[in-house]
Amino acid sequence: MLNKTNSNNSDARSADGVSLLISILMRFPQIGTVQFDSKYRLLTLNFMVAQTVSTADLESLKKSIAAHLKAYHFVIGKTPILLKITTKQPYEKFCMLSIVRDIATLSKGEINLLSTLLAENFRECLILDGSEFAPEFVDDVEFPDEMIDSMFEVVRAQRAVSSLTAMRENGQVLVFKK
Q1: What ranges in the chain are assigned the alpha helix state H?
Q2: What pLDDT shows up at residue 149?
């Protein structure tokens, strides 16, 4: 009987993590994928850009993002445990920017700031889901901003059992366990 209870608890914890990732992707179409590392309690937001970005521009962008986040964290009075910004350009005309943050201090407001910065910097080059469904869905439902922050609180308070990766494809969010 104890195993069944533990199984139900782990299913509920996984469901909370899945709900958080789905909510982030539905609310922020600028984000290509989200990964949750349950062992280290980290969330990775991946933004994809359909252009080659010079090394100098990447460094400038990283510094700009870091400066904006530093100001944001100063205003809200939280110091991030981990903030890591990396980029990869595995193909010509494709760049992926990854921002790794600790789940303990990350908020919906910070994700909003990051999404806005990337949208402003890359305008039409930021890769979004080809489906028109996701942005309309968010507008129609009037996605409550407090919902994501409350999901963060739930996930922070529990010990997740598995790492998760979520991506958007053709208007649907797919979530995978690692």
Answers
A1: 2-27, 55-76, 108-122, 133-141, 145-157
A2: 85
